[in-house]
Amino acid sequence: MRLLACRTPFGKGGLGQHFAHLVEESRASGELAGYYAHTLKPGDEAIGHRVDFVKLTALKRYSPLRFMPLLMSYIGEEVFDKRVAGQLSVRAEAFMGFVGKSLHTFGRARALGYTTLELIAANSHVRNVQRRHAEAAKQLGIRDTWLNEALARKTMREYAEADFIYTHSEYTRDSLLAEGIPESKLKRTYLTADPRFVPPAERIADGRFRIAYIGRVDATKGVPLLIEAFGRLKHPDAELTLVGGWASSVMKRQVQAWMARDPRIRLAPGDPVPVLHRADVYVHPTYEDGFAYAPVEALACGVPVIVTEDTGMKERVREGETGFVVPTGSWEAILDRLEYIAKHPLTFDVGATASASAPGD
Fold first, then answer.
1. Cα(146)–Cα(317) distance, rounded to whole angstroms?
2. Domain 209-350 has CATH 3.40.50.2000
């Protein structure tokens, strides 16, 4: 039997979806002993344990720490990990937690007699994340990483303590192997888009070229590169929709300045499905993503994607058929592919795309 934990709300955002997938997978196999999370799936009150963040939220809003998002990110991971460790009482054989949030709970689980510690590598190896985020800061002049050295060292200890490390892309797996993680520790998982992501009954055909981006609006995600490419796109009627929120005050000012200069750019927080149902292409210009749900959701909606070399879901892209993989950090490459798709729209069979990414293929 397995106990799981994740800081994010159940099923919300990329990490929350990943967590929900693992919970449901354990439930289906009869191995779910329970889970800890910020919010629970309705009906799971008997096996779910809510981890409250009221005091941490107040600290983030009203203390000077609100001006230090990197430190707050680290504190948040530590608080969650220590609270789960302190509350851990469910008897199980295995504990499964995410990188950066599991070291204290690992220790408590061992003390309680858990025989297996499982770690979820949501991103590539932590040292690779540091390198990629440093490259983003160097190239774009904006440092909005969520990773500090203390969290990196904690993650390294989790790698060592874990009996198994679960990866969900070859990109992540290869990065761990390159840093010396034993292959015997690694297990591969396969993630899919939520069933609600399906193509629309009918697509709009009005001559407008609609570009979409979904996720955190920050430098490490490469959003400034997308803005640069979009600003240079020669199309008489193009628009760019960003679905998400900014991660820093610097990026907030940048986004507001972009929209003030170019009314074709809009920010639309909320459900991404309506945006994807109208989109002609989805762009994921990230400097690093272990998997990236948003472009997979775009493919599930029949929208071609442009993704970088440093995202795990690139293995789902059929070059020139469902989209393109471009060099990381190149707005020129993004612009080139946008211009191509604007002139040569890509259409594909969603069912064939899903089967092509199934385990074992």
1. 27
2. yes
